[in-house]
């Protein structure tokens, strides 16, 4: 198996990687801050379950921000 290098990637894939790379950690930080500040009654399920979920990238923060919070 040959290893794919940065130069082997098509231009659109390189551009997408550069644009989306900072989004993942930013979502995690936003979700972690929200989880720490939000009262337990305004979260679907226990906070202890959501903390490890935030580590699962990229779905954990997206699930928490989209579904885990009660408004």
From TrEMBL:
InterPro entries: CLS_N. It is a multi-pass membrane protein. The keyword Cell membrane applies. Residues 26-69 form the Cardiolipin synthase N-terminal domain. It holds the Pfam family PLDc_N. It comes from the Bacteria. It is found in: Cell membrane. This is PLDc N-terminal domain-containing protein.
